[in-house]
């Protein structure tokens, strides 16, 4: 029998997990609102399984949240059980006084994983948070899934539910380094990988020569702008049986799945007869979907059952397809002109010397804002700043050329594989 999940080299069987669930079920049953603040897969797995079973409200907090943030959530949301780190032998927890006036609310609360601004707390039902797991066909039953996201976020939860409900095994890589990802994927013969374009690019760049590559049953790309070049690179490197790119967010759920190996999505998706409905308002995609959030806590806990949700993502129609361009609130104002960092990154990644890059805004006391970029080179000192700026001047207008350029050994990414724009 396949293990429930693998953490590094430790295999946790379904029997061992079930024993753990039986042990902690009585504790979960006498509480209402459960908070999880742990980076450990076992604590997260136990809490997800038991809260769904008992009909409790589960608040999933990113591991990087500070104690003061956790205390605020506990106070605001009547938390009466806190789950912390643990292993297969013992899970750390702290019981608070149960308020019997608080009714059970079978819901899961997830924080958004954007790289700018304060995280928003989003309420989902257990049904809407796990709806994507219904799309896992027979071909993907009993497979090995890589967990490349934090399980506390929306994307990680999609892997969790899809894997567990298809009798699959989740492979966790505790170190989080890309050489460790490569080793685990090869060692455990992972069949299914989902990740951001940044994650895929860094994974492929880190793959050691001579290390066997698995033949993937499914490769999925999402979370950032998906361009044709990254689709082609993943397809050529891993040769997956099925390659898709998706559009999903904590607020709207998983709403776009494209499997034709082309960037963007067909304009025919903008069809009022579809179950998931789309419209474009001032170049921003808006969505109405059955898998959308129930409410957004920081906006007054309003119900959203009958409203369109603005995604904040800019799209452009070209040749019968809509292409994602970047975030509306991610544009940088350079001398009165708006610049999308993703557009500049796309041009930079055409250079063979550029392995990866991140474009961001750098404040200036003189001109207000400068466009900046951190670049990881394929070979050390293989490109000078002067030469780069000269070549960019042919490809971009002057206001889109980064004025602050530095070469770095690596770029910083979030726990969900997204670039962090400083």
Short précis:
The protein is an alpha/beta fold and 422 residues long.
Low-confidence segments, given as residue ranges, are: 299-303
Number of domains: 3
Number of strands: 26
What proportion strand?
25-35%
* Helix-strand makeup class: alpha/beta
Helix content: 10-25%
CATH architecture of the largest domain: 3-Layer(aba) Sandwich
First and last CA, distance: 46 Å
Radius of gyration (Å): 22 Å
CATH class of the largest domain: Alpha Beta
Describe the structure.
- This protein is an alpha/beta fold and about 425 residues long.
- The protein folds into 3 domains: about 5-105, Alpha-D-Glucose-1,6-Bisphosphate, Chain A, domain 3 (3-Layer(aba) Sandwich); about 130-330, Rossmann fold (3-Layer(aba) Sandwich), CATH 3.40.50.12780; about 330-405, GMP Synthetase, Chain A, domain 3 (2-Layer Sandwich), CATH 3.30.300.30.
- It is about 25% helix and about 30% strand.
- The protein contains 10 helices and 26 strands.
- The strands form 6 sheets. The chain has an 8-stranded mixed beta sheet. Strands 15-21-20-17-16 form a 5-stranded antiparallel beta sheet, with helices on one face.
- Helix 8 links the parallel strand 12 and strand 13 (about 240-250).
- Helix 1 (about 15-30) crosses helix 2 and helix 7 packs across helix 8.
- The protein is globular.
- About 40% of the residues are buried.
Topology:
Blueprint lengths: L4 E3 L2 E3 L1 H16 L3 E5 L3 H14 L2 E5 L5 H10 L4 E6 L4 E5 L11 E5 L9 E5 H4 L14 E3 L7 H11 L4 E4 L5 H10 L4 E4 L1 H10 L11 E4 L6 H11 L3 E8 L3 E6 L6 E2 L10 E5 L2 E5 L6 E2 L5 E2 L5 E10 L2 E7 L4 E3 L2 E3 L1 H8 L5 E11 L3 E10 L7 H11 L8 E4 L15
Parallel strand pairs: 1-10, 3-4, 3-5, 4-7, 9-10, 11-12, 12-13, 25-26
Antiparallel strand pairs: 1-2, 5-6, 7-8, 8-18, 13-14, 15-21, 16-17, 17-20, 18-19, 20-21, 22-23, 24-25
Helix pairs in contact: 1-2, 7-8
């Amino acid at each position: 029998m396949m293990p429930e999940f693998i953490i590094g080299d430790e295999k946790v069987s379904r029997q061992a997990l079930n024993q753990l669930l039986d042990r902690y079920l009585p504790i979960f049953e006498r509480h209402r609102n459960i908070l999880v603040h742990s980076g450990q897969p076992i604590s997260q797995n136990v809490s997800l399984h038991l809260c769904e079973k008992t009909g409790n409200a589960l608040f999933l907090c990113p591991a990087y949240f500070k104690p003061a943030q956790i205390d605020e959530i506990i106070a605001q949301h009547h938390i009466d059980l806190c789950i912390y780190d643990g292993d297969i032998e013992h899970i750390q927890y702290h019981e608070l006084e149960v308020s019997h006036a608080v009714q059970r609310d079978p819901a899961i609360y997830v924080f958004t994983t954007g790289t700018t601004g304060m995280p928003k707390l989003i309420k989902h039902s257990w049904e809407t948070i796990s709806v994507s797991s219904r799309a896992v066909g027979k071909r993907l039953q009993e497979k090995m899934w890589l967990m490349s996201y934090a399980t506390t976020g929306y994307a990680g939860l999609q892997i969790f539910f899809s894997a567990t409900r298809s009798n699959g095994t989740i492979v966790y890589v505790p170190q989080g380094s890309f050489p460790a990802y490569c080793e685990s994927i090869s060692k455990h013969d992972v069949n299914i990988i989902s990740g951001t374009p940044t994650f895929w690019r860094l994974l492929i760049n880190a793959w050691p020569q001579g290390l066997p590559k698995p033949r993937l049953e499914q490769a999925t790309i999402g979370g950032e702008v998906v361009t044709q070049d990254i689709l082609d690179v993943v397809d050529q490197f891993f040769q997956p049986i099925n390659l898709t790119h998706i559009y999903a967010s904590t607020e709207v759920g998983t709403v776009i799945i494209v499997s034709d190996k082309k960037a963007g999505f067909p304009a025919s998706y903008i069809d009022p007869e579809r179950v998931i409905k789309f419209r474009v308002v001032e170049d921003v995609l808006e969505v109405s979907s059955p898998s959308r959030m129930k409410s957004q806590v920081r906006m007054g806990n309003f119900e959203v059952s009958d409203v369109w949700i603005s995604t904040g993502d800019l799209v452009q129609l070209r040749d019968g397809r809509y292409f994602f361009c970047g975030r509306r609130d991610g544009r940088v104002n350079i001398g009165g002109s708006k610049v999308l960092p993703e557009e500049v990154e796309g041009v930079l990644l055409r250079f063979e010397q550029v392995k990866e890059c991140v474009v961001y805004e750098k404040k200036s006391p003189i001109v207000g804002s400068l466009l900046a970029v951190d670049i990881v080179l394929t070979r050390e000192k293989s490109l000078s700043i002067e030469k780069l700026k000269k070549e960019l001047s042919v490809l971009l207008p002057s206001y889109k050329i980064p004025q602050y350029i530095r070469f770095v050994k690596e770029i910083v990414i979030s726990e969900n594989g997204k670039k962090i724009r400083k």
